[in-house]
Write a structure and sequence with these properties.
The protein is of the alpha/beta class. It folds into 2 domains: 246 residues, 3-Layer(aba) Sandwich (Aspartate Aminotransferase, domain 2); 130 residues, Aspartate Aminotransferase, domain 1 (Alpha-Beta Complex), CATH 3.90.1150.10. It contains 16 helices and 15 strands. Bound molecules: pyridoxal-5'-phosphate.
């Protein structure tokens, strides 16, 4: 980064400081991860200069022979990874993937069903401040306040009552297996489509550690930067191939892949981000290696051990534990808020985020919960022993939020731990 350092020292310094923050603190935000150096190199390449509207071998610009190679590799490898017949790797983000998927299957004004934001759903699953809540008439399904698990019976009842165009499954803060087969039955019962948004669990799905949604859905969307450990971006998959369908918003019958392609470009986006697609290609190849499955197994083991440790320290966890990469702590019984806990942990060098819990007495900006994830720490090589230690550190800090000495002491323990798990090199001063 010589040029950046000499010519734009303030930007350089911010990047250096961010690298230091990522390496010297414990990154426990469940939606974050650390990409490999080959992924970073592809991201920082001249591919960013190229306009490539259209799809490989059908572009609106000349000079696309090399970007076609990377998009071809990205599509090929992601299809192999998920056993999918069709893939679109152009969505700029998970939200853009959802927008294209929704418009493929529904018209503005149609009724759709998604998980309530305060119950673990994502903004794009129908929040009133998001395009999904503004364009569509949203019916939100929820989790049972007693068990913290998705209330499939309520979902079935709501679907029969409101007859949505589709149900979107998937979540941002749900620690248990999602039963895609059961949701498919509900969709079949009322004759609606099923979209699974696997943004959080894509890495687990790809390695067979979470049930596969593809056999039970019309469209699968995902991000590429969470458990999948690629660059920031989105993707769309489907196995609904043959036969032309009369889909809404399409003047003529189309196949599902044709309609999805048309809704990504030109429907929702212009030129694809070819540097990101090159980095996606690298990440998808990495994800097909046996080491990636071992990594995902360790992510789950680490979350299970962290959950066990927190339970032993007398904390309440939503659903009583976890099946996947994340944990939702319910701090209401301890009389703590998510916001104050997040701050105290951050002072101690542990990065988390506040989160709503079932029956949360606090407002969404305060909350009573904390969401913890293991993907990023597992990428650094941390295992069960470190998780036990971190669980105890979290307990120690949360036992007295006002005690700044505790936070300081924990912070130096965190730094010492991080030194043993070096990864990115910190750019020089
Ligand atoms: C993170 C997430 C997204 C959106 O991702 P962005 O890339 O931030 O737009 C969509 N759906 C779910 C369930 C998510 O968790």
């Amino acid at each position: 980064m010589q040029n950046l350092k000499q010519q734009y020292p303030e930007i350089y310094a911010a990047i250096r400081d961010e690298t230091r923050r990522q390496t010297e603190t414990l990154e426990m935000i469940a939606s974050e991860n650390f990409v490999s150096l080959p992924v970073l190199e592809a991201l920082g390449s001249v591919m960013t200069n190229k306009y490539a509207e259209g799809y490989p071998r059908h572009r609106y610009y000349g000079g696309c022979e090399h970007v076609d190679v990377v998009e071809g590799k990205a599509r090929f490898n992601v299809k192999k990874l998920f056993n999918a017949k069709y893939a679109n790797v152009q969505p700029h983000s998970g939200s853009q993937a959802n927008m294209a998927a929704y418009l493929t299957l529904a018209k503005p004004g149609d009724t759709i069903m998604g998980m309530h934001l305060n119950h673990g759903g994502h903004l794009t699953h129908g929040s009133p401040v998001n395009f999904s809540g503004r364009l569509f008439n949203v019916v939100a399904y929820t989790i049972s306040p007693d068990t913290g698990r998705i209330d499939y019976d309520e979902m079935a009842k709501l679907a029969r009552e409101h007859k949505p165009r589709f149900i979107v499954s998937g979540a941002s803060a749900y620690p248990r297996i999602i039963e895609f087969d059961r949701i498919k039955e509900i969709c079949d019962d009322v004759g609606c489509y099923h979209i699974a948004d696997i943004a959080h669990i894509a890495g687990l799905v790809a390695t067979g550690l979470h049930p596969d949604p593809l056999p039970y859905t019309d469209i699968v969307t995902s991000t590429t930067h969470k458990t999948l450990r690629g660059p920031r971006g989105g993707l769309i998959l489907t196995n609904v191939e043959g036969g032309e369908l009369m889909l809404p918003n399409m003047p003529k019958p189309k196949t599902m892949p044709e309609a999805i392609d048309a809704w990504v470009f030109p429907g929702c986006q212009g030129g694809p981000l070819m540097h990101v697609i090159a980095a996606k290609a690298v990440a998808f190849i990495e994800a097909r290696k046996p080491e990636f499955k071992e990594y995902q197994q360790q992510v789950i083991k680490n979350a299970a051990v962290l959950a066990e440790t927190l339970l032993a320290e007398d904390f309440k966890l939503v659903t009583g534990g976890t099946d996947n990469h994340l944990i939702l702590m319910d701090l209401a019984p301890r009389g703590l808020t998510g916001r104050a806990s997040e701050r105290a942990l951050e002072n101690a060098g542990i990065t988390t985020n506040k989160n709503m819990v079932p029956n949360d007495p606090q407002k969404p900006f305060i909350t009573s919960g904390i969401r913890l994830g293991t993907p990023a720490l597992t990428t650094r090589g941390m295992k069960e022993d470190e998780m036990r230690r971190i669980g105890k550190m979290i307990s120690y800090v949360l036992s007295d939020l006002e005690d700044e000495e505790r936070q300081k002491k924990t912070r130096s323990e965190v730094e010492e731990l991080c030194k043993r798990f070096k990864f990115y090199e910190i750019p020089p001063e």
